[in-house]
Structure formats: structure tokens, C-alpha cells
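Why this split exists: single-chain examples teach little about how molecules sit against one another. For that reason, every record in the complexes split bundles all components of an assembly together and asks for one structure covering all of them. Below is a record exactly as it appears in the raw files.
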Amino acid sequence: MLDKRMTPAEIVDQLSDGMTIGIGGWGPRRKPMALVREIMRSDLKDLTIVAYGGADVGMLCAAGKVKKLVFAFVSLDAIPLEPWFRKVREAGQIEVLEVDEGMFQWGLKAAAFGLPFLPTRVGLGTDLAKLGGLKTVQSPYDDGETLIAMPALKLDAALLHVNRSDHRGNVQLLGPDFYYDEWFAKAAEKTFLSCEELVDKMEDHYHDDAAANIFERCFVSGVTEIACGAHPSSMPPLYGPDMKAFKAYAGAAKDPGDWNAVADQFVGNSEDEYLESVGGKDAVTNVPLAIY
Amino acid sequence: MSDITLAELCIFACSETFRTDREIIATGIGPVPRIGAGLAKLTHSPGLMMTDGEAYLVEQPVPLGPRGDYRPKFAGHLPFSRFFDSAVWTGRRHAMVTPTQIDRFGQTNLSQLGGTHHQPKTQMLGVRGFPGNSIYHANSMFIPFHSKRTFVEGEVDMVSSAGYNPAKRVSGGNYDHIDLQKMVTNLCVMDFGGPDNAVRVVTLHPGVTFDEVQEATGFELINAVESETDLPDKDALAIINQLDPHGYRTHVIRDNPPAIRTAA
């Protein structure tokens, strides 16, 4: 029960058509891209994707795997507008729930705590409530304030890429920012991790870094080791975002502009083949960290 | 003759916009607002707090672009994972941003243009954090090309941030913290100080007329011009240069014109 090791294919076998899947990270940062590529190689479809979106969202949309997207933005930072996401949106091919970045994490927290919603002022005075069908609630106390009820973003599964894990799902996240990975894990029925380094017992290897365990192993269902598994997104402190790869990916949205024609280049038949095609582990870990 | 550029004048105006005696996070998105925030912190508003652009708080604003041997010194930590708890939803922030559209109510749009929500004609970034920023803390804007495409007639296509539009307010909602301060453009500085928060022009950049600004704006402006926009002094220019050693500011306004117009 406590040995949660799985292969990437076994993780994707746990997912099914129509599921709501949360993807951790933020734009082009700390994305579980190897697991996303494994989904791309599968027959999965009709997914609802919940993400602070980057190329994960762009390629899943481009491949026609997304029925609905919950998002606040989709961006590659230095390439502000994610071109594959744009194409799909401008063709009217997906349903969306657009929310504010803060409302988004609030919805994950509602799901984590088993609540139907959490109240917030955010969204008032904007078009979000009207476009997203968000309802208001009134404070039952003397203030009587009207607030938006941000619905729980309950996930069937969450996918995260972490720096270290052991067989039992004791994780360590390094780097300056973990975004909302913790809340994706807690909002999900099952959370699957890829990690840069898998060890048998965390306490025998990285005892001194236990404060980096930002969520507990009871929120982890499966773990697989995929070095460079965030590429082309960044994974501080190990490697930065591969802007050369992002430029090629963004350029392909213009020319040829057809995902099927370029999917091999950005997904590959296997993760080994993909990593080889981008120069191998040395090339990825040599990509400098981003300067913002 | 002065060799001060219009971008430098705008940075100085942005810096004045950030002026405060509070300890709040200053976020300037884009070179001109970001240098302006740094200039404010290093001169009149030392209480301002800011990050290295990623996750760490710095007391010495980090220069733009490649850093060479310069290493930012971290004084604190403000990752996105704490940003709403610490900065946005507590109202301890002033952000300066560049939306795609702005209307007479100060409502902005950076999500989508034209079409429908299901199928926009042009998909942009998404609303990002604008809804929360606008309902909780001070906001200002920098627009490098003042035109009717940005300052639109009617209302913005998709209201991404809340403004002063009474028709968008549901009864019982708390709008007390909507605080739109200044809009700095390549022509002028505007605020929301008119009746019912109507937009006023408060300073004109050297050589610009009110009529020229009105002509480039899709809604009616109030002429509350008191003076020309101030030029940065020598000390300010030195700090600007230090915060932007690679000259990113020279690419912000088309042709990087001088602050004082030369006769055509």
C-alpha cells in the first residue's frame, strides 16, 4: 500500500475519458510535462483541464483532448500569448470557465476542504460572474455583504512534477515558489507525481530538508521518476525554461499551424525519445534559470 | 536642449504615481512601470516593497535584464503561493499595468477582443489577477501609445477589472477598495478625479495639447490640466540608468522620442 511507484503509462491508465484533471505549476514553470506528454500519447479525451496554463494546456487543446478548460491565463511568460490555446479559442472549440488567479486557488481550497464554495469579493464588478454562471451569496451576519460564491474546483486527478519523492510519496519541493501545487494535491481524489529524483526512504537521504515537504504523503496516490520531466518548462533549482524549445513550439502554431503535423516533434513516441530529441539530460539541466 | 526621453519622463511620472508613506508591495509590469516603482522606492517612498520579479523581496530594486556579476540580495520571500494572502487580498499593494482596453469607467480588458466568450475573435491572456487586484487594492496604468484602440468608446469588450461603472455593481457588494489612481500615457497623465470618478487630464507632457489627447481618446475627458508633466531631475535620471543598464526603456515608446518635442 505504501509503495506508490508506478510507470508513467500506469499513471495514465488511472485516468479516464471525461475526467476533471488539475495540472500543477504556473505558465511555463514546474509543469509535469512528461505526464502531459504521456496523456498526449494515449487515447484519453473529453477532459476538463484545470490549470494555471502554459504549454500543457496549449498542446492538450491543440490535440483535441480538452472538452472544457478552467483558467485565469494561458501564457509562456516571454511568449505572452500561448499560440495553440489561442487557435483553439478563436475557433470556438472548447468550453471555458474563466476565473481570476486568486479565485482559482480559492476554488481548489474549497475542494480541498470538501466545501461547495468559498465566498470572495473577487469577480464583483467584472464580467466573470455573468460569463461563468457564478452565483452570489449574502453574509448572514449584520453586514449582509453580497459576495461571489467561488465553486469548489473538485478534481478527479491532479498531476504534479516535484523535485524529490520516496516510494511512499514523501515529497520535497525545492526552488523559490511552489505556486498552488499543494492545493491541487488536496483538491484531487488522486494525485500522481513525477519527480526528478526518486529515493527509497526520504529520511535516509534528505532528512535535513524535511521542511521542503509542503504536502503530506496521504495526498499522493502514485509516483514515478522522470528526470527532466518538466521540460520545456522550468524546474528550479535544476533547470530553467527552455525558450528555444518554446519558440519552436510557438512558431509551429503559425507554420505549419497543424498540430498533427508537429506532434511527434513536441511529444515523441516515448519519453526517452523525446528527451533524446531535445539534447538529453545534460542539455536540459544546462538551461539557465530564468531572469524576470 | 535636454536629451531626456519621453520614456524617462513617463518613468518619472510613474514613480510619482507610486508615492506613498505606506509599506505596500509595488508591482510595475513592463519596463516603464517597473523602473518607476524602483525609482519611487529609492527616492520618496522607501516603505515600498518589491520582488526580484519572481519570488523574493528585495530592498534594493533589481535592474532589468541580464545581470552580469550583479546578484540580487534577498531580504524576504513573497512567492505566488502567498501572494493573495499577503499582498492582494489584504489590500497591501499598488500595481501598475498595461491593459489592452480601458473605458471611461476605468474598466479594463486583457482577456479577449470581439466575437463571443465561446469564440473570441482575438484571445489574449485571460483575466489573470485583474479582478482581484481591482476590487482589493490601488491600481494605475501605463499606456505607451495613447489611442482610441486602447481608450475605447462605450465599454471594454470583456470587463477584466472592476471600475466605477454603477451598472456593474450588484447590491450589497463591497466596492470601497476600488482605487484607480493614475493613467500615465505617452501624451499625458490622467486620473479619475472628476464627478462620479470621470477621467480628467491633470498634466500634459511638454508640447502636447488637451485637444490632441481628447482626439486620441474614445470618451470625453475633463480638462483639469494644472501644469506640464514634470521632467526627471539629474538624480532621478542617474537612478533610472542604474535600474535599466541595458536601455529596455528605449524600446517602449515608438521611435524613443525626446521628452520635449522638437518642432516638426
